[in-house]
Amino acid sequence: MELHSDFGARVVIHTDQLAWQPSPMKGVDRRMLDRIGAEVARATTIVRYAPGSSFSAHTHTGGEEFIVLDGVFQDEHGDYPAGTYVRNPPTSAHTPGSAPGCTIFVKLWQFDLNDRTQFRKTMADELSAPVDGVATALLHKDDREVVTYCQLAPGAVLTSDAAGGIELLMIDGAATVDDLILEKNAWLRLPDGDALVLTAGQNGAKIWVKSGHLRHAKAPAV
């Protein structure tokens, strides 16, 4: 399966307008944003766990990165409330689920296969003092990518001309990019060479941003 697999094209998806699709596990549904592959795929997805649902134990051969958007995600390593950012590198394993239910934004098979750095962070705890209305948290940085979380005051402007493409998810609030209005849960992917100029709306904005990674996009090595 290929979905939005042309990484030289701009893509914007208002994810709340997508229908939920069932996954192979009962009670776990998803909204696919981009994908190369079948069930084993380089994929960016929003996943919803119904209360009491779970996935069977599995190993992330290509790594897993996710943000908890609402509820509480759980596995044998602990509970992950909304606002948590997690990186589970290649070869890591767990049995995910959620007793109360949750929604996560998850990216699979997008790691350096030699990466073994595993961590979880509460994104808001990492924020710096605001500069021109923009508070930034550096969540992860390596030779392939930079991952940040930003909180913007009303009317504040976030800019980036990072090489290798830019991707963002609106965690809360609203913003404009060119003539696009991005509201909560909107997802935007800009190709290598496109600059980001984003202006927060009247209630500000909370945004997860990744850059540099699109030049490494390819199908899983299976």
From TrEMBL:
Record Pfam families: Cupin_7 (PF12973)
InterPro entries: ChrR-like_cupin_dom (IPR025979), RmlC-like_jellyroll (IPR014710), RmlC_Cupin_sf (IPR011051)
Highest taxon listed in the record's lineage: Bacteria
CDD domains in alphabetical order: cupin_ChrR_1
Domain ChrR-like cupin stretches: 10-111
Gene3D superfamilies (UniProt xref): Jelly Rolls
Protein name: Cupin domain-containing protein
Species the sequence originates in: Yoonia rhodophyticola
